[in-house]
Design goal:
The complex is a heterodimer of chains A (522) and B (413). With 522 residues, chain A is of the alpha/beta class. Helices cover 25% and strands 21% of the residues of chain A. In chain A, β16, α10 and β17 form a beta-alpha-beta unit. The longest helix of chain A has 17 residues. The radius of gyration of chain A is 23 Å and the shape is globular.
């Protein structure tokens, strides 16, 4: 890889992207729906039953043995999943083993990383791991931003990850799937066991397309493990270990609505907006995340729905006890769940057929014959920055540091109305800026920005604008909001970057929408 | 050797993991190395340059050019940094020169004695993070508190912070109130806040008319620099048995008094009783307060409700409070504001009745009748006054004016 041969290309969003990343050519972002994929989906090698135990018992004694039997060697791509969130032990164990075996230049392909994966920094330093393709949260983001990772990071949305695997853009050598419950054949689910996570949707693509698939559990049951969220027919080896993670950090015993008066105000204003503009109507659908503000939004939705006797046809989760109580009260007919955030969510998923697990395939994959994201009437999302053209950033902060992953955020932008409730500033860090540091979502897909000092509606949404004005909601333009932020915080200096790219941001179709560069330090 | 004796170290402000939008300043003078600014800030890449320039300007303003200034910043705005630096400087040099943030032009509004004071939000005077967005919750009044919420050793820095907040923060039309400390400390508070368009001074632990007169005399002597035409109003807080006994004479002790509040936490302690949600133990005290206020022509204001999570309890208390004649309550959390406004708001039936009274009154006057009656009831002037008050309150709260029942409603739909 000759860095001097790297060219910069300006993509359709006016952002500069490198011509190649980790030796692979880059397709620059071409606009929404403009890039047309060609060819056929990727196909994994054809296996035969003769190579697998006739009695269906694929269990081996240790994770190390499973990895060795899967042929672990230099330069491979290893995938893991973030169902265990910040309580995950598994990803760290895999690379401990790789390090012990002296393996180098691995590509780690997680569905997301968490601060607990700070453990892997020495392996990034010594070359056990070459680079990460997935989210780079917290300490890993800082490490990457400072240009310390050997390769260039690649950030994808949950849907984009499925797309990349399906299209053969990322070839997974070994997928390691941690499951709350499994049988020796490899059937697995997240519904029970000490490390229950509710569902295993993020591992679906990996099970279907990886060369080798290992299922690891700390709750092995005799065949059959039902329901099989992961089908054993895709699985090469199964392993039982003592502990997959720290249950307290995997799932919160109970999620809680924010108590911050400012956030509650944002949530209330958001709900008022949805009420006044007719978004909340009988048979509607919505998606809110599990952050404090988002939870509060669903709670305010519930109050409005209860008062007006309105029912939602479905809610997209992140499920949590608030959503579950709405389901059980009959205010929501279905929860289509992407990940479970608390114990109530897991209980409900296990016992209520109207609480359905989904995967990035059903919900988010853009290279597909449709997905659920576009059917949702309103989605409430966060952002680290939004600019005057409604473009938004979710991965870097205004100081230029990479700190978060994309999650399902980009995929959700395809819902009918996208609302970002964000404060104008957070401890002097401005959220409303003239141009986002990193472009993750094009402004044409973002409809409303709700701040504590006013609501900005994308001029493209004249329908919403008219109704909100009629309802007397505090409407402002983005320029007015930015002026307010500037007059309170002052005008910040821009972060300074080196020329060197440290990560690229993929759009949902596999094209590159923006680049994160090395931060200038000192 | 001589240098060592001149070396002085002072500090002000807050730091720590949970501190936000604040900063801690430590100054060491006489280091012999000129002005050194050591900044650790979570917004360094965005505002580091700006903060260093600000601190340097302020230190030069005080002529402190041989000092090491260490700042630990958790995203403090300029007015906070300036107050913290000033507080640290005050401890080493007695300069009377003030390095002030600019007074926002939109802060130069005034209020009148009759203004509704249903809700007033207490903000601890030394916690900038809670002040920044206080105005967006639309309380009728914002109280920057220098008394009970500020630790004794933090009184000076809180005073400077509150003064700067009055200049640099927009409270979006809320009445600008400060609760001062009891005299003599309160005199220092007044010197800083009075020149900065403060609307209402809350005087705690009022038990004697002389106390108020004393504050009145002090306020008279402090020049006001802006010209909003604002008089400084007083709201004494009665929180002792003696204060309750003297309620009327306190209420009449100064022309500046527009309202009087009762503080039940301290009062129940003084009485040696437990405060209950029913409030029977202070029934007389509260009735006495309301009566004294009405007699003196000022607004009676109820105590705060201290359980932030108990919204039902708050609503009940507000209803009782309104029924007793109180015209407002304190809030210790923004989420209480809505409940208080809703609780004190005139009900549709009240608005309806008030409209009918005013209509009858107007008709009687048109016909030149001396006696006003509504149905079979005679209406006396105080009733008309009350009705007007209800309609004004409804208007101020932008409550929907329901059509008077005996009029045909305009319905265009």
């Amino acid at each position: 890889m000759n860095k001097n041969n790297r060219k910069w290309i300006e993509n359709a969003a006016g952002r500069k992207v490198p011509s190649e990343v980790n030796g692979h050519p880059v397709i620059p972002y071409q606009g929404i729906g403009k890039y047309l994929p060609k060819g056929r989906k990727y196909g994994p090698p054809i296996p035969s039953c003769k190579d697998f135990p006739a009695d269906g018992n694929k269990q081996v004694v240790s994770l190390k043995e499973a990895l060795i039997k899967s042929g672990l060697h230099d330069g491979m791509t290893i995938s893991t999943h973030h169902h265990f969130r910040n309580g995950d032990f598994l990803a760290n164990m895999i690379f401990d083993i790789a390090h012990e075996l002296g393996i180098k230049n691995l590509r780690w392909f997680p569905s997301a990383s968490f601060p607990c994966h700070e453990h892997l920094i020495p392996y990034l330093e010594d070359g056990t791991i070459h680079h990460i393709e997935g989210s780079m949260n917290g300490p890993l983001g800082r490490f990457t931003s400072e240009g310390k990772m050997k390769g260039i990071g690649v950030l994808r949305s949950h849907g984009g990850r499925y797309q990349a695997v399906q299209d053969g853009e990322v070839h997974i050598d070994i997928a390691v799937i941690g499951a709350g419950k499994a049988d020796p054949f490899g059937n697995a689910n997240g519904l029970e066991g000490p490390s229950a996570t509710g569902l295993l949707g993020f591992a679906l693509a990996d099970s279907q397309y990886a060369d080798k698939v290992i299922v690891v559990t700390d709750h092995m049951v005799p065949f059959p493990c039902v329901p099989w969220q992961i089908q054993g027919n895709y699985v090469d080896y199964t392993v039982e270990i003592e502990k997959l993670g720290d249950p307290e950090k995997i799932i919160s015993g109970t999620t809680r609505i924010t108590r911050s008066p400012d956030r509650l105000y944002l949530a209330e204003l958001t709900a008022q907006f949805c009420d006044a503009t007719g978004i909340i109507h009988d048979g509607f659908s919505f998606q809110t995340g599990a952050g404090g503000t988002s939870l509060a939004v669903s709670d305010y939705f519930a109050r409005i729905m209860r008062k007006k006797g309105i029912k939602a046809r479905f809610a997209r989760g992140g499920s949590n006890k608030y959503l579950v109580s709405m389901l059980e009260e009959g205010m929501i007919e279905y929860i289509l769940d992407g990940q479970t955030f608390d114990l109530e969510g897991i209980r409900s998923m296990a016992e209520n057929p109207h609480h359905t697990w989904t995967s990035p395939f059903t919900s988010y994959n853009y290279h597909s014959k449709g997905n659920f994201a576009g059917m949702v009437d309103v989605v409430i999302l966060g952002a680290t920055e939004v600019d005057l053209d409604f473009n938004a950033n979710v991965v870097t902060h205004s100081d230029g540091y990479l700190l978060h992953g994309i999650g399902g955020w980009q995929n959700c932008l395809f819902s009918k109305t996208v609302i970002l409730p964000v404060p104008l500033f957070r401890d002097r860090i401005p959220i409303i800026v003239d141009q986002v540091t990193t472009l993750c979502g094009p402004g044409e897909l973002i409809d409303v920005v709700v701040t504590e000092r006013g609501i900005a509606v994308n001029p493209r949404r004249k329908d919403l604008l008219g109704k909100a004005r009629q309802a007397g909601l505090p409407l402002k333009t983005m320029a007015e909001l930015k002026d307010m932020a500037d007059s309170i915080c002052g005008i910040p200096d821009k972060p300074e970057f080196e020329d060197q790219p440290v990560a690229v941001i993929k759009w949902v179709d596999g094209t590159v929408i923006d680049t994160v560069r090395k931060i200038k330090t000192g | 050797m001589e240098k060592a004796t001149r070396k002085k170290v002072t500090e002000a402000g807050n730091r720590g993991e949970k501190v936000r939008s604040d900063c801690h300043v430590q100054i060491e003078t006489g280091t012999g190395k000129g002005l050194v600014i050591d900044l650790r800030s979570k917004v360094n890449s965005m505002f580091g340059r700006h903060i260093r320039a600000l601190v340097s300007k302020q230190m030069n303003f005080y002529n402190l050019t041989d000092a090491r200034v260490q700042i630990t910043d958790s995203g403090a705005l300029d007015f906070v940094i300036m107050a913290r630096l000033e507080a640290a400087v005050q401890k080493i040099s007695s300069t009377s020169q003030k390095f002030l943030p600019e007074m926002l032009t939109q802060n130069l509004y005034s209020t009148g004695p009759e203004r509704f004071r249903l809700s007033r939000l207490y903000l601890p005077g030394n916690s900038p993070a809670l002040m920044l967005n206080a105005g967006i919750h639309k309380p009728n009044g914002i109280i920057l508190d220098l008394e009970d919420s500020v630790a004794p050793e933090k009184k000076t820095e809180a005073r400077l912070l509150v003064r700067n907040a009055l200049r640099a923060l927009d409270f979006y039309g809320a009445e600008r109130m400060v609760r001062i400390n009891p005299l003599p400390l309160g005199a220092e508070d007044l010197k800083e806040v009075i020149p900065n368009n403060v609307h209402v001074i809350l005087i705690p632990k009022a038990e004697d008319p002389d106390q108020i007169t004393e504050v009145d005399t002090l306020v008279d002597k402090i020049p006001v620099k802006h010209n909003t035409g604002q008089s400084v109003y007083f709201m004494p807080i009665l929180e002792t048995a003696k204060g309750i006994e003297n309620a009327y004479s306190i209420a009449m002790s100064s022309g500046r008094i527009v309202a009087m509040a009762i503080g039940l936490e301290d009062l129940t302690a003084d009485l040696g009783v437990t405060r209950t949600s029913e409030g029977n133990e202070t029934l007389w005290a509260r009735s006495r307060m309301v009566n004294a206020c009405v007699a003196a022509g000022i607004q009676p204001i109820d105590s705060v409700f201290s359980d932030v999570s108990d919204m039902e309890g708050l609503l009940k208390t507000v209803q009782r409070s309104k029924a007793m004649g109180f015209e407002g309550m304190g809030c210790i959390h923004p989420r209480q504001i809505r409940a208080i406004h809703e609780g004190f708001a005139p009900s549709p039936a009240e608005i309806d009745k008030a409209k009918r009274i005013i209509k009858a009154y107007d008709e009687a006057r048109e016909k030149g009748l001396g006696v006003v009656s509504l149905g079979t009831k005679m209406i006396d002037p105080p009733v008309v006054q009350r009705a007007l008050h209800i309609l004004e309150l409804a208007k101020a709260m932008e409550l929907e004016f329901l059509p008077v029942t005996h009029e045909k409603a305009d319905n265009n739909e």
